[in-house]
Write a structure and sequence with these properties.
This protein is an alpha+beta fold. It has 10 helices and 10 strands. The protein has a 4-stranded mixed β-sheet. Strands 2-3-7-6 form a 4-stranded antiparallel β-sheet, with no helix packed on it. The longest helix is centred in the middle third of the chain and has 37 residues, at 238-274. The N and C termini lie far apart (62 Å).
């Protein structure tokens, strides 16, 4: 075994508690996630038992208030936990990020009564959430969604179809954005819908090029009735809630992307240190050393960018522009680094015997989810130059 094998990321963490938390996550990852990751991804198996363990360990509600079962950790720490989980298996890291996104509306905009009733089970009761904004005809143009919620006495009746829903069909609760009023963003309201609600169903999971263990499916709402007590925020506030959630969610995707990139770099370093050609390890060839150096530099830059945005969020300062930058840069970095890892492994990198090809397939989706990288560029440009002329 080469003495040049990669070492765990040397993290700058704010407290001893945070260092203990990262140690716990690494232990769970190595014992419960990494051993079966490749086989389970190939089989398209979702590891629900891992999420139960994460919930029991207090890892599904890290950025939320302890009063309601959360871990009350700053985003600076929570995102590094996500990175560790994603490096072990993206299905798990992304799943935790999506669950956190789905819990956001209730945690940030719910009434005290709603928070007391719903959050403890969501954050530490073994439940798993899904976030429902996109639709078959409204992806990037989310404000044009067509799912409708009609008032009926003290209830709302929701009808429509949501698309590209992570955990679709297996979630215990869905945060659903539905139209309750006028066209455009001001007519959208947020609802917390139970996973076992009458009239709620899911299509067969999409067949994807990567992230096969994480189910992505259309969710159908056929006259789903929910009480007004499950409306989150004011009527017409749903789109603002959705965008606010996505600002934080994009940081989660950025952290997951750096986790995948770090896993790919670690694999490349290990392979290059052990593979011999022309009488010496290929890691000693300057061309490959420079490739590894560039990969590592891009990862460090991405990590610094998402942590800088997280610290703004933790300080209560505006961070939407930085979140878009982090999502853009980190996911593009993941695509470059995983591609380089496949190239460095040569023919072996193209086979399923090594994880590099899986990392490359998984990195691609991170450039698409929670706002494509083209949308991120639009967001950044609006912060720099103002909105586009109509």
């Amino acid at each position: 075994m080469s003495d040049r094998a990669p070492q765990p990321v040397d993290r700058q963490l704010p407290t001893d508690e945070a260092r203990d938390l990262i140690s716990l996550v690494r232990d769970i990852a190595q014992r419960e996630i990494v051993p079966g990751a490749a086989q389970e991804e190939d089989a398209g198996r979702f590891p629900r038992e891992v999420f139960t363990l994460l919930s029991d360990s207090g890892l599904l509600g890290l950025p939320y208030d302890a009063e309601f079962g959360g871990g009350e950790q700053p985003y600076e720490v929570y995102l590094q936990v996500l990175e560790e989980l994603a490096a072990a298996r993206l299905t798990v890291g992304l799943g935790v990020s999506v669950h956190t996104l789905a819990s956001y509306a209730s945690a940030a905009y719910g009434t005290k009564e709603q928070q007391a009733e719903y959050l403890p089970a969501m954050l530490g009761g073994g439940l798993l959430g899904a976030y429902c904004l996109s639709e078959p005809a409204s992806g990037s143009d989310a404000a044009s969604l067509r799912t409708k919620a009609v008032r009926d006495g003290d209830d709302w009746v929701i009808t429509g179809t949501k698309a590209w829903i992570t955990h679709g069909g297996i979630a215990d609760f869905y945060t659903v954005m539905a139209r309750t009023g006028e066209e455009g963003p001001r007519g959208i309201t947020a609802f917390l819908v139970p996973g076992d609600a009458d009239g709620l169903s899911a299509a067969a999971p999409e067949k994807k090029m990567g992230l096969k263990g994480s189910p992505t499916a259309q969710v159908h709402l056929d006259g789903v009735r929910v009480p007004d007590a499950r409306r989150i925020g004011d009527e017409g506030q749903g789109f603002a809630i959705a965008l606010s959630a996505l600002d934080s969610g994009r940081l989660g995707i950025a952290a997951c992307a750096i986790g995948v990139a770090q896993a790919a770099l670690d694999e490349a370093v290990s392979y290059a240190a052990g593979r011999r050609q022309f009488g010496k390890p290929i890691v000693d060839f300057q061309g490959l050393r420079f490739m590894l150096a560039d990969m590592a530099t891009q990862i460090e830059a991405g990590r610094a960018l998402y942590l800088s945005a997280a610290r703004l969020r933790d300080a209560g300062l505006p961070f939407a522009k930085q979140a878009a930058m982090a999502k853009l840069h980190c996911t593009d970095t993941a695509m470059r680094v995983t591609t380089d890892a496949v190239q460095l492994l040569g023919g072996y990198g193209y086979t399923a015997d090594f994880p590099a090809e899986r990392y490359m397939r998984e990195a691609k989706v991170l450039q698409i989810v929670e706002g494509t990288n083209q949308i991120q560029r639009m967001v950044i440009a609006r912060h720099l130059a103002g909105p586009e002329e109509r």
